[in-house]
Specification:
Blueprint (H helix, E strand, L loop, with lengths): L1 H32 L6 E2 H7 L4 H8 L20 E4 L2 E4 L12 E7 L1 H8 L7 E6 L2
Parallel strand pairs: 2-5
Antiparallel strand pairs: 1-4, 2-3, 4-5
Length: 133
């Protein structure tokens, strides 16, 4: 019985060590791909050297475009709705027409927050673009 306790402590330490290293590596990879759901600033967009708002999102925050709800009903695209300066702008594809140079900030609004702000029917949230005025 004594040998089991002697082996249990080193085994537990080894498991904890492996767990710490593996979670650190995946966190670093996520940081390299993008900043999660943090807003995209004009400076970050400029540094990326992209031409359009859609290019900026695809390169810097692809997670903004992830479908979060079943593709049914009125919002059958599976993508977030798009608002520019607080007004409805169109679909994600419409962001191809917006020059990156005109953008002050792009942020993703969760479905819950979008419902509070604009009403229902935002199962994938909203991409909110604020332009330089």
């Amino acid at each position: 019985m004594h040998w089991r306790r002697t082996l249990a402590l080193p085994a537990a330490i080894a498991l904890l060590t492996v767990g710490c290293f593996s979670s650190g590596a995946s966190g670093g990879a996520a940081t390299q791909r993008g900043q999660g759901r943090s807003p995209l600033s004009a400076a970050e967009i400029r540094r990326a050297g992209v031409a359009t708002a859609l290019d900026a999102i695809q390169r810097l925050r692809p997670e903004f475009l992830v479908s979060r709800a079943p593709v049914t009903g009125a919002n059958a695209s599976g993508y977030p709705a798009v608002y520019v300066d607080g007004a409805e702008f169109g679909t994600v594809v419409s962001l191809k027409t917006m020059s990156a140079e005109t953008i002050a900030e792009i942020r993703w609004i969760s479905p819950e927050d979008a419902t509070t702000r604009w009403g229902t029917n935002y199962p994938n949230g909203v991409i909110l673009v604020t332009t330089k005025r």
